[in-house]
Every structure is written in C-alpha cells, then in structure tokens.
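Hi team, as promised in this morning's meeting, here are the two structures we talked about. I've kept the exact order from the run log so nobody has to guess. The first one is mostly here for context; it's the second one we should focus on when we meet again. Sequence first, then the predicted structure tokens.
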Amino acid sequence: MTLLAASRPLHSVHDAALIDLDGVVYLGPRAVPAAPDAVAKARAQGMRVAFVTNNASRTPAAIAEHLTALGVTATAEEVVTSAQAAARLVAARVPAGSPVLVVGDTGLRQAVRAHGLRPVTTVHDRPVAVVQGYSPRLGFDLVVEGALAVAAGALFVVSNNDATAPMGRGIQPGNGSFSRVIAHATRQEPLVAGKPEPPLHEEGVRRTGAVDPVVIGDRLDTDIESATRRGVRSLLVLTGVTTPVDLLLAPPEHRPSYLAHDIGGLNETHPEVLLEGREAHCGGWTAAAHGGRLRLRGAGERLDGLRALCMAAWHSDHPLSTASVREVTGVLGW
C-alpha cells in the first residue's frame, strides 16, 4: 500500500465522501476548525456527503442538529450511524417484532424500533438478541441484563468495537472497551456492525449511491481498515487519535490512500511521493529506511516530510524500531 497522488482536488476525483465525525468533524462539543468550510466547499462542487459514525449513542436527527449548530449543514438522512447498521444486522437474523435487549442509548433504541424490532431492558422479556452501543450514561444494571440474556442464548451484536473515543477532555474508553464486559463474562464474541466491518460502510454507500467514494477518518483500525477491506480510497486526517508514529508503523491494511492535516484535504490536490531505490521523495524532503531505522533530510511543508517517511517506512526491508520512528517524527515537530 502506498500513498497516492491526486492532481485534482479529491472532491472532483471521488463522487462521494463517507466522513467520520469524532476526531474529523468535531472533538466533543467543538468543531474541528477546518470542517465547516471544507464540507461546504465539497458540497458546492457536487460531491455527495454522508456522515458515517461508529458512535451509536445519539439519533441521526440529534447528530444533524449538532452538526448544523457547529456550522456543518446536515440532515438526518445524511447521518449514518453504527446503531442503524447494528439494527439492520439484527433484523436480518430474527423475526419481525422480536424483543431485543438494548444496552445503550436513545440512538440505538430508536434504530432497533425503526427496523421493526421491540426494544427491551430486562432479560425477563426473553430477548432473542442483545445489541450494545456506546452510552455516556451506561449503568452496571443494564450490562448485567445484557450478560444474562447472552448467557441464555441471545444473539450478541455490538454497534462498534472502538477501544477508545476522542472527546473534548482527551482519549476516553469507547464501546469496544465496554462490550468486553459482556463478552468476557459470557465467553461469547459479538457480531460487529461498525467500522471496520462491512455493514456500516455498506449503509453509507447505500445512502449516497456512491460508485467511487473516499472514506475520511482519523482512526487506522476502523476508518482506514474499512476502506481497505472494501477496496476504496481513504483519507487519513491528523486531528483525532492517530499520530504520525502510529501511521509509520501501520500494517498494510491500516495504510491510507491520502494524508492531510485535517478534513480540508478533501478539497486539495495531493503530491506524488517518488520511490527511488530505498529513498522516498516528496516536496523538499527525502526519507530512507536502513537497518530498521528511518532517516529524513531536507526542508519544506512538514506533511510532505511525513509522506516521504510513510513511503520509506512502508517499503522498509526490516521492522522499524519505535524509538527510531519517534525520533524522526520529532524532526518534523510532531
């Protein structure tokens, strides 16, 4: 996997953008500064947009309202949540009207109901499935009910498996961390609806009618891997959880097609990174990997330096040491 060049802005290369929210469009209650103008400009150029989030706590209408308040105009129909993907996954496996125990928040309960299922909160309702999604108000009692139902044979589905979530106060535990309680207690691994698994990506493609979408995200193990699995292009932004060190050490399935500081990269061209022997060149930078260590020389836009480092690292003949990677990214100010 290598970084790709784009001589035209990505909004004119791809017909739709499947945009992650947390860490891309907003961080907690605040917008990423570049987001409102970036999304508006892409729309103005005819690009279709869907906001595709692994967060299952809020309803699409609530998310759209939040986005609009932040200056990113959105409708509920443009918001695709892992709650919706999880509910569709359950509905395809159980009879209509079945009781489903919801270990989560309003967004997940509403999605379950919208797919013709009956949300319940106790094992005494004999649920045929348990679906779990992130909720900042999740209590121990509801988790216990979910565990009892799964242990009794209910289908176990989680909206997403993110270990962490970028929030206003920092990186906090995500639904993947909370869902391990039920999985560990019952020894039952859940079906996963959210990224990087196919259901959520397919929901976004279905909603936009995309033929050649670009996935935009801040996480390698969800956003970028989901694009890799589906054979579509991806844009990694550095406003969320992924650091340059993570990027340089990424395995092939976690390597993006394009790289940008923020979502403004959707409206930019992307330079070619040339690989000549063991040396990679981008802008005024040259990077090389020798014996498990990275070297960088030159000057210019630091993102070009990181692009050169990516190409060198990903084509290295030897595993790279974390210490070497940290040292060389420090040269670029990260």
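And here is the second protein, the one for discussion:
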Amino acid sequence: DTLHYYTSEQFKSFITYAKSQCNSLNDWGYYVFFNIAFYTGMRKGEINALKWSDIDGNILHVRRSVNQKKKGVSVVETPPKNKTSYRDLQMPKQLIKILDEHKQRQQEAKAFTEDFRICGGIKCLSDTGISNFNDKCASAMNLPHIRIHDFRHTHATLLINEGINIQEIARRLGHSKVEQTWNTYAHLYPREEERAIKVLEDIKI
C-alpha cells in the first residue's frame, strides 16, 4: 500500500485556503478539525468526539470516539479504539492559539458549555461535510486529494522525517503495538543508514 500524506508546505497551502473559506461557525469547525488532525495525528472519530472539557492547559485528553451511522443521522459515542488509544497529547503553541480563538467564537453562541464538541458545537461535524471540505481545499490549491485518515499519516511522516523515535510516534497515534507503527512507516526511515555511516566515519582513531 502506498502511503499518502502532505508535506508541511502542502498542508500550509491547504490550511491557508481553508481559513480563507471560513464564513460561518461550521466552516471554522472544519478549519479547526484539520488543524487538530495535522498537529496531533488523532483519528477522525476521536477528533469529532472532542469536547472542551478534554483540554487541560496544553494537554488534549483523548478519552472517546464517535461513530456516525449512514447519512449522519445518529452519532454513537464509543470508547477509543483500544487501551493505548486513551492518551494525553501535548499540543504545540499554534494549535493552542487556534483552539483558544475557536472557543471564543463558540462562547458567543447561546447556551455554550464545556460539553460542546470542539469542532461541531452542539452536534458533531458530519463525515460528509468534512470530506467535502477536504476535497474543496485540495482542488482549490491543486493538491493531491488525500483521505481524512491520511492526515494521520501526514502527522507521523512529519515527525519521522525530523528523527522522532518510533515509540513516541506510536504513543501519539494511540497504536497498541509499536510493530504496527513500524510496519506502516519503516520505509520512511532510509536516512538512518546515512546517519549511521556518518557516526562511524566521525570516530577519530
């Protein structure tokens, strides 16, 4: 299976366009959704399930997931995929700022509570809406069309390319076994061979 993902430059053009399309609270919800996906590598159901009460300072607590039945009619809340999917993710400053600004937008809505879904408010964003927004941004910026799940690969790939170890990547993704992470991303570690040789060559004898 070929891995599809965006580089940070591609994501930058995707998200810049996404921001320019924000005219309603719902649009901002999509914008926030894709930022969370990029900066945390969370699964779609986990992002949709997030409530404001899941944020504690710079930590995002992943505690649940949602599953949408066909046509987005009913939403079923479930525990995350497995035990290791319960995780605490430290957020970078950019994401904290995006979330703070979005919370202020939602607080202007009537009856705001900490139980509001971060991306959707009272209800979750619909899978179809997320998908359409994704396609719209990719088309507008002439980017390859990647699936929502591929934003998870984007997150992992970005960290791998910066030499973050596989265990931390597995933890962030909520994988139950590091082998699973390794099997998916091992081929992205080719630079290690060059680095290994450099380490050896740098030994002065």
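Starting points for discussion:
The first strand starts at residue 55 and ends at 56.
The mean pLDDT is 92.
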